């Protein structure tokens, strides 16, 4: 059994409490997903559970944990810096359990993750692997170590659809407990039987959490129904209060008016009656005030983000060629091998294109080449959001400084307003970008795209770091973008809801998906 008790986490820099008095018990068979908007402390809690030293530089913490007889397997959201310079072979060789594996066991594990057995012995640096390959390598080493409890921070990030389906089976078939964070709604819907929801309400001045022992989709529907019902009751009570208060106000006004206008002869007898009546009205008013304190509260919830990408000027005429890409060979970034041959991609007008494929097949390389071509065009305004945010973000800048192109006071005020609409607090706007969560960094880049006036967006895994609650908003925003989108994604809901055409990158080129999404 796994138990944590009365955990409180407070950010050292702005003294904001991100989690207060949180307790949880996990038993064998529990598949618990942690959800909430970006920056709400999910990854911080996961790190504390695994090793409190991972957060002690930026968070004050208190609480207890009891993990008797359990072995934790932890997948961090990002590969630790110390591991990035190691070769793949060194990474695996450092695990004693790797050396205990038989060739048959290694081959099966590699096959489960859609990799060749030779992957274990690559001399390639871990940092140079594709995002999905890094996740796979970490998961494979974790499974070799035979943990009982899995702590998985974004296990679905960047991995291909085939491996996502294997990951679903792995989580569902795990005999012990799994605690995971994911932004992949499909994965959550297919696996989670418990939902842990972290919220920051009242402009992130108050934290709140709830634990529901039901599947995710049921939780979302029941929560929405409960909020709607509570809001209806609360608003009904307030309507009754307004009617009642107005009635009492008129009574007070009537009695007061009569008191002011009674004659001297009537003052003793009628005056006493009117004063008694006024006293009764005041007593009634005090009784109602006590009852009002027990009124149903208007429900508060942390709303998903919302802003708009593009405007009518971002539309592209349907006959205009956005891209006519042909290449006999696509080489790996270091030129060491051929990833694909006979590539051809044609895009007209405001089409939304999705590119899928196995990890390491060259999708990011292809997209970066397409970006290089489109960013040079003068007849289009293209903007690029890479998979690795650090390519564009200066980690030491604040979000406001990064987005400010002019230094103008009005411009900075406008940027702060935009960031506020994305649920940034005033303190977070002044944090160095390196201290922000992956989702908060993604918001900065999306805001840059929004402010740029671009009519072509080149996006590498655009939804990968957004919460499942913000996911529908992001997808709708991208679907409604009036310009063209060329994207790489493994997000099954994004591909189905946003993309007009889907291509699969294979060694023999780009293969167009059928109408039902099959190839």
Task: Report on this structure.
This protein is of the alpha/beta class. It has three domains: 2-220, P-loop containing nucleotide triphosphate hydrolases (Rossmann fold), CATH 3.40.50.300; 224-292; 312-512, P-loop containing nucleotide triphosphate hydrolases (Rossmann fold, 3-Layer(aba) Sandwich). Helices cover 38% and strands 22% of the residues. The chain is built from 16 helices and 17 strands. It has helices spanning 42-50, 81-84, 88-93, 96-100, 103-112, 131-144, 161-173, 185-191, 216-261, 269-292, 363-375, 399-403, 409-421, 438-452, 471-479, 492-497; strands at 2-11, 17-26, 31-35, 59-66, 72-75, 149-153, 178-181, 194-201, 206-212, 321-331, 338-348, 352-356, 382-385, 456-460, 484-488, 501-506, 509-512. The protein has a six-stranded mixed β-sheet, with helices on both faces. Strands 13-14-15-12-16-17 form a six-stranded mixed β-sheet, with helices on both faces. Helix 9 (216-261) packs antiparallel against helix 10 (269-292). The model has no long low-confidence stretch (mean pLDDT 86).
């Amino acid at each position: 059994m796994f138990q944590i008790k009365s955990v409180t986490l407070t950010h050292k820099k702005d003294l904001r409490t991100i989690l207060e008095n949180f307790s949880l018990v996990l038993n064998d068979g529990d598949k618990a997903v942690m959800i909430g908007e970006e920056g709400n402390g999910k990854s911080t809690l996961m790190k504390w559970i695994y090793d409190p030293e991972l957060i002690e530089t930026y968070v004050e913490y208190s609480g207890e944990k009891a993990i008797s007889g359990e072995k934790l397997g932890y997948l961090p959201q990002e590969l630790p810096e110390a591991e990035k310079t190691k070769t793949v072979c060194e990474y695996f060789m450092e695990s004693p359990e790797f050396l205990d594996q038989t060739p048959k066991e290694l081959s099966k594990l590699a096959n489960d993750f859609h990799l060749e057995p030779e992957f274990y012995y690559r001399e390639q640096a871990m940092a140079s692997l594709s995002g999905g390959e890094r996740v796979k390598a970490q998961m494979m080493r974790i499974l070799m170590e035979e943990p009982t409890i899995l702590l998985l921070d974004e296990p679905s990030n960047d991995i291909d659809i085939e491996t996502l389906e294997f990951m679903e089976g792995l989580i569902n078939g795990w005999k012990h407990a799994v605690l995971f964070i994911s932004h992949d709604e499909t994965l959550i819907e297919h696996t989670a039987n418990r939902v842990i929801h972290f919220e920051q309400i009242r402009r992130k001045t108050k934290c709140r959490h709830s634990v529901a022992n039901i599947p995710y989709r049921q939780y979302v529907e029941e929560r929405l129904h409960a909020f709607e019902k509570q809001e209806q009751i609360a608003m009904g009570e307030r309507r009754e209060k307004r009617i009642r208060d107005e009635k009492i106000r008129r009574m007070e006004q009537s009695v007061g008016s009569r008191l002011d206008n009674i004659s001297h002869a009537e003052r003793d007898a009628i005056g006493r009656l009117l004063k008694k009546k006024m006293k009764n009205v005041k007593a009634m008013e005090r009784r109602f005030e006590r009852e009002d304190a027990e009124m149903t509260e208007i429900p508060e919830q942390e709303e998903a983000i919302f802003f708009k990408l593009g405007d009518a000027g971002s539309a592209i005429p349907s006959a205009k060629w956005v891209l006519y890409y042909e290449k006999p060979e696509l080489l790996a970034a270091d030129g060491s091998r051929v990833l694909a041959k006979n590539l051809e991609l044609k895009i007209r007008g405001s089409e939304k294109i999705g590119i899928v494929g196995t990890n390491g097949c060259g999708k990011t390389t292809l997209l970066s080449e397409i970006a290089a071509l489109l960013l040079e065009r003068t007849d289009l305004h293209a903007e690029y959001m890479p998979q690795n945010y650090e390519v564009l973000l200066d980690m030491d800048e604040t979000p406001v400084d990064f987005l400010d192109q002019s230094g103008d006071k009005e411009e900075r005020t406008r940027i702060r307003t935009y960031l506020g609409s994305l649920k940034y607090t005033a303190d977070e706007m002044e944090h160095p970008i390196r201290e922000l969560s992956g989702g908060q960094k993604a918001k900065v880049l999306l805001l840059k795209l929004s402010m740029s006036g671009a009519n072509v967006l080149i996006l590498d895994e655009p939804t990968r770091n957004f919460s499942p609650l913000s996911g529908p908003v992001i997808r709708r925003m991208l679907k409604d973008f009036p310009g063209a989108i060329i994207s790489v994604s493994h997000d099954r809901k994004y591909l189905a809801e946003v993309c007009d055409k889907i291509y699969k990158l294979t060694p023999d080129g780009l293969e167009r998906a059928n109408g039902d999404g099959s190839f």
